[in-house]
Amino acid sequence: QVQLVESGGGLVQPGGSLRLSCAASGFTFSNYAMRWYRQAPGKERELVAHIGSTGDTAYGGSVKGRFTISRDNRKSAVYLQMSSLKPEDTAVYYCYVPITSRGSWGQGTQVTVSS
């Protein structure tokens, strides 16, 4: 059974940093790409960052240069280091693995950027 558990969200001031973690289980982690998405109130879910099984990365335009995705295959974990946070980064952040036809999602972790 595929399971993704996010952690590390919270309240941070503008300009601050946070590191999100996603612990994966139930599949061969090293074989799959992993992604972070986010959804703000009243908005559609959007892709934040992608990391391939070989470590190649891609980012959404609004976070490029501020966020860094990484993975640790020994720990079956993917991370999102977020820096220079802005109020518009406020959202629920989800971990996702494109496994099977519909993929699998974590439960999400709230990130709030506010002074």
Question: Could you walk me through the main structural features you see in this protein, from its secondary elements to its overall organization?
Answer:
There is one protein chain. The chain has 115 residues and is mostly beta strands. The chain is built from no helices and eleven strands. Strands 2, 4, 5, 6, 9, 10 and 11 form a seven-stranded mixed β-sheet that branches. The protein has a four-stranded antiparallel β-sheet with strand order 1-3-8-7, with no helix packed on it. A hairpin with a 5-residue loop joins strand 5 (46-51) and strand 6 (57-59). The protein is globular, with a radius of gyration of 13 Å. The model has no long low-confidence stretch (mean pLDDT 97).
Topology:
Layout: E1 3-7, E2 10-12, E3 18-25, E4 34-39, E5 46-51, E6 57-59, E7 67-72, E8 77-82, E9 91-97, E10 104-105, E11 109-113
Parallel strand pairs: 2-11
Antiparallel strand pairs: 1-3, 3-8, 4-5, 4-9, 5-6, 7-8, 9-10, 9-11
